Structure formats: structure tokens, C-alpha cells
Amino acid sequence: MSSGNEVAGTGRQAEEVFRLCGSEKTLIGQGLRAEVARGAIDSLAERVRGFFSDRQGGPRLVMGSLPFDRSRADYLFQPEAVAMGSRSEAGKAATLPDAVHCTIRPVPAPSAYRDAVAACLEMIAASAGDAEPLTKVVLSRSLELASSHAFDAGNLIRALGRDPSVTVFSTLLPAEADAPHPLLVGATPELLVSRKGAEVVSYPLAGSARRYGDPGADRRSAAVLEGSEKDRREHQAVVDAVFDALSPYCSELTAPDGTTLRPTASMWHLGTRIVGRLKDTETPVAELAGALHPTPAVCGLPRERAAGVIGQLEGYDRGFYAGAVGWADEKGDGEWYVSIRSARLAGRHATLYAGAGIVAGSDPAGETDETSAKFVALLSALGIDEHGRPLREHAA
Ligand SMILES: C=C(O[C@H]1C=CC=C(C(=O)O)[C@@H]1O)C(=O)O
């Protein structure tokens, strides 16, 4: 099996092909040097290992994204060069694009999403007596944007970077036919897994509430989330799944701070930081990502059954939304973030995605509102509301 393709004559030598901008550092990939052989997640670690053993030149790391569906092909590449930046640069240069002429088509329509949530709740209830009942399904919806001007990823990245609590990312997606590579751009609050030497960290989130400009309303929203039995259950499902997936690889695995409130600029979340030590330091980050993805923060429980319900009820292709974006180096270190709060940019078209975890006790209207709240970060970085209208502060 070939470990990948050289990329010749693409004119992408100096272009930014990847950016991952966390609270401490920014990793930038410039130029597309080679693509890792594409495949499903089960063979990811083997393909990454093969890539490094077959090629000597270039930076000793690969970067890119994994799709939501475990059986679909990922897209990882080696850049020509790697640069490190700082977060403050990203925030300072923020300018908002003129997105006045932008139309938005919700897919599915919010009313159809509510119906899908109601149907999902019936499936959860009907499965209660099964040997492995369906206990959680994350259902998403999308917004299809068509703008008079090509979307500017650089502007979007800078605007998203104003929220210091999220990891801003941008990565090339595989090219389709003769069209240029689309991009996946987003601002995720959720770490799927990182590995540095023997230390492994995962920071799952699940359970959400909208944030408000009014401090009293904002505090009340956080307090309701903290006290919500439904959200605690939704969150615990993810924490248990992360422990189950990582414990075979770890000699120690703990959640030192327990479950805490994790704010972003627009959302409150329940989050649990999980830290482990590898039994075998030869275990690469790609193998850990393969064991974890997709967690019940983006799929559900049991995993296969929930993925089937998503395919049946969502009615569109998630592609690289709710997958993972990140990097892996030759030593097996790396970082992979859950690719939520993301958009696929292709010229004048963009598709934004947001999902919500459905468990017994979920309310269809409440979950629809939660997805609307999750769109706010990307929409406000684009300078528009959910109907494509310019936000008041940016309107002429
Ligand atoms: C699936 C998404 O969020 C996940 C991450 C945090 C909280 C979530 C929730 O409360 O439902 C979701 O599990 C999304 O933003 O598209």
C-alpha cells in the first residue's frame, strides 16, 4: 500500500493550509507537500506510521481532519513548512467582513429538526426494554449560506480568535472534481485527545446553555445548567465513554477537577478534564483518536445504533463536521479537537453546523434553541444573524 502522494504543481507552496490556534500556541501549516494515503479511522495509526517511515523530507508531522463517519476516508497531509504564531496576533487583527448580501437556508428547517428530535425521543423510549437501549443521540442541523462575495477564511479566523476560550482551526478539505479545496473553519471548545510523551488529555463537553449579555440572566442560565439532571446525565455518558476508551491504554486515568462549568463567549457547557498516563509510550495519538472517535458528545450511545439513527433522522451528510481536526508527529505526539462550531467554506458558499445531545427528558423546542445558540459564534464572526441580516453593530 502506498503511504501517500507527493503534491506537485498545485501552486499551494506558500499558502496556509492548516491553522490550530489554542490558548497557548498557534500551529500553522504552509504549503501542501504530500497527502497521507486516505482511509477509514481504523487504519489511521498505521497509515501515519507508514507515511513517516516511507518519506524522509519535510516537517515530521501531518495535519488535517477526520470525518464524523468512522468508515469514511480522512484527509491528512504534510505541509511544506510549519510556523508557530501567538494567539494575541489573531485577536488583534480581527476585522469583520461585509456579509450584507448573504442568504441563509436552514437544512433541515427548524420545524423539521424539532420533529426529528421528537421522533428520536420516541425511539429512545421504545428501546428502554432492549438489551442495549438507545440512551443518547446527538442530532444536528445546518445552515447553508450563499454570499455575494467569497467567504474570507482569514477574516473569519481572526474574528473567531477574539474568544480566548476556544481553539480556532482551519484546515484544507479534500478537493472535489476541478473545484479548489474547500476549507473547514471553526472555533471548538472541545479537545478529543492530546498526547505529549506519556501524558494523555481529553476534555469532553456535553450539556449546554445559552449565554446572555445581562449578567443576572447569564448567571441564572449557568445555574440552571449546573442543576439540570438531564444535562448531567447527557454529560456523564460522554465521560464514561472516554474513560472506557482510554483505560485499556493508561496506567492512571483521572478527572482531577471533576465536572465543571466551561464557558465560551456564547455558551455554557459542562466539561470534565480527563488526564492519563500511557502504559506504553509507543501508543501514538492517532490510535487514541481512533479509539475515542466519535464520542457520545457528537454521536450517542450505543455508538453504532446512535450513528444509524443520525443517518436516518438528520437527512444530510455531516462530512467533516463533528469529526476531528489536528496533527500528529513522527514520535506519536499530537492534538485532535472535535470539529464542532464549524463551517465548510467553498467560495461564496458556506455550510454551518450545530448539534445537540438528545436523551430522555429532552425538549424538542429547547434542543432547537440550543442549536440556534451554538450557531451564534460563527454567525457573529461573519457579522450576520440566523436570517442572514447584518448584525446591528455592523450594519451601515
Ligand atoms: C454537537 C455539538 O456540541 C456538543 C458539544 C458540547 C455540548 C453538546 C450538547 O450539550 O449537546 C454537544 O454534545 C455542536 O456544537 O455541534
UniProtKB/TrEMBL annotation:
Q: Which domain of life is it from?
A: Bacteria
Question: Which intervals hold domain Chorismate-utilising enzyme C-terminal?
Answer: 111-374
Output the Gene Ontology terms for molecular function.
isochorismate synthase activity
- Spell out the reaction equation it catalyses: chorismate = isochorismate
Keywords attached to this Swiss-Prot or TrEMBL record, sorted alphabetically, are: Isomerase
Cross-referenced InterPro entries, in alphabetical order?
Answer: ADC_synthase, Chorismate_C, IsoChor_synthase
State whether keyword Oxidoreductase applies. Answer: no
Give the EC number.
5.4.4.2
Q: Which family does it belong to?
A: Belongs to the isochorismate synthase family.
Which PANTHER family has this protein been placed in?
ISOCHORISMATE SYNTHASE ENTC
Q: What is this protein called?
A: isochorismate synthase
Native organism? Aquamicrobium terrae
